[in-house]
Amino acid sequence: MLKKLLLAVFIYSFILAGCSTTGEKTDGASVEDRGSDSSATSDSANTTGLPGVGTFKGDPLDNPASPLATRVIYFDYDSSEITPEFQEVILAHGQYLAEHQATSITLTGHTDERGSREYNIGLGEQRAQSVRRMLLFQGAADRQVEVVSYGEEKPVAEGHDESSYSQNRRVEIVYKR
């Protein structure tokens, strides 16, 4: 019986060692190259399970190499559908919230200036609710996620062209600390 237990522990350890980060390049920069300031790396293991977090020392929300560093989700014109490029980001935030039950966020929905005020408030709400649903699916609790829609009232870009409009069609993830 003891031999079987020791064998199982050895096999489990071997499997875990095979899953460790090797520092190989995945996006043009090695894992060690990301977050090169001395406060961003340590010998501690990634305990969050979040992709891109690596061996960052401190709160994963502060790691610039993590998908958690992205706090703005952009949307196509007249749409509340989450595009594939932002799904990993939302999944990471959902997992983080599931692992940190005392943490809460506000999702602020925004639109560009086109459309009536009422329509834009509704569209901002739909966008924030789309992000909220995905976060809850990942394990975030309902009490952790508040939704607010500002519609067109708080633009980040003041221009009247597509470049400005695309920056204003967004949901911002605001952590309450």
Helices and strands in order, then pairings?
Layout: H1 2-18, E1 72-74, H2 84-99, E2 104-110, H3 117-137, E3 145-151, H4 162-168, E4 170-176
Parallel strand pairs: 2-3
Antiparallel strand pairs: 1-4, 2-4
Helix pairs in contact: 2-3
Quick summary:
The protein is of the alpha+beta class. Helices cover 34% and strands 14% of the residues.
Which features does this protein show?
177 residues, 4 strands, alpha+beta, 60s Ribosomal Protein L30, Chain: A, four-stranded mixed sheet, disordered N terminus
Describe the structure.
With 177 residues, the chain is of the alpha+beta class. The chain has a domain at 73-176: OmpA-like domain (60s Ribosomal Protein L30, Chain: A, 2-Layer Sandwich), CATH 3.30.1330. 34% of the residues lie in helices and 14% in strands. A four-stranded mixed beta sheet has the order 1-4-2-3. Strand 2, helix 3 and strand 3 (145-151) form a beta-alpha-beta unit. Helix 2 packs across helix 3. The N and C termini lie far apart (49 Å). Residues 1-48 have low confidence and may be disordered.
